[in-house]
């Protein structure tokens, strides 16, 4: 099943903005979004610390693709969902 991973942190207004923008996209409506706190995992913190929020799309085959960071790229999300 297609879903999204949002690498985030609790005190990040850009993270909240990206989540709300994604949920407002009609193409993404109803698709699960797992919000993952990078500060809770050392490896994730090292990988994503300065990039959060980072949105990753996971396709039905389990393959993942980084779609955007800092701000929602609606064109990248739409292209991912169309592929």
Q: Could you name the CATH class? A: Alpha Beta
Instruction: Count up the helices.
Output: 3
- Mean pLDDT comes to 96
End-to-end C-alpha gap = 13 Å
| CATH architectural label | 3-Layer(aba) Sandwich
Order of helices and strands: EHEHEEH
The strand count comes to 4
Helix content: 25-40%
Give me the side-by-side strand order of the main sheet: 2-1-3-4
Structural class: alpha+beta
Largest sheet: 4 strands, mixed
What does this structure look like?
This protein is of the alpha+beta class. It has one domain (3-82): Glutaredoxin (3-Layer(aba) Sandwich), CATH 3.40.30.10. The chain has 3 helices and 4 strands; from the N terminus they run βαβαββα. It has a 4-stranded mixed sheet, with helices on one face. β3 and β4 (64-69) form a beta hairpin. The protein is globular. The two termini are 13 Å apart.
């Amino acid at each position: 099943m297609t879903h999204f991973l949002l690498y985030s942190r609790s005190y990040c207004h850009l993270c909240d903005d990206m989540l709300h923008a994604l949920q407002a996209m009609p193409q993404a409506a109803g698709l699960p979004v797992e919000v993952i706190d990078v500060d809770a995992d050392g490896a994730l913190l090292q990988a994503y610390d300065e990039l959060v929020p980072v949105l990753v799309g996971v396709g039905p085959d389990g393959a993942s693709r980084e779609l955007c960071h800092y701000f929602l790229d609606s064109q990248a999300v739409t292209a991912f969902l169309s592929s």
